[in-house]
Amino acid sequence: MAEVTPVYGRDRILMFRRYDQRTQEGAAKLALQTQHSWKFEAKSDSTETKDGNINSPATAVATLDIEAIASNDPVNKMLEQAVKDGAKLEVWDINLAAPQEDGNKFEARYGQGYMQDWETPAEVGKLTELKTTMNIDQLPQDGFATLTTEQQNEIQYAFQDTVKATDAGGEEAGK
Question: What domain range is 135 assigned to?
Answer without folding.
Answer: 9-40+61-150
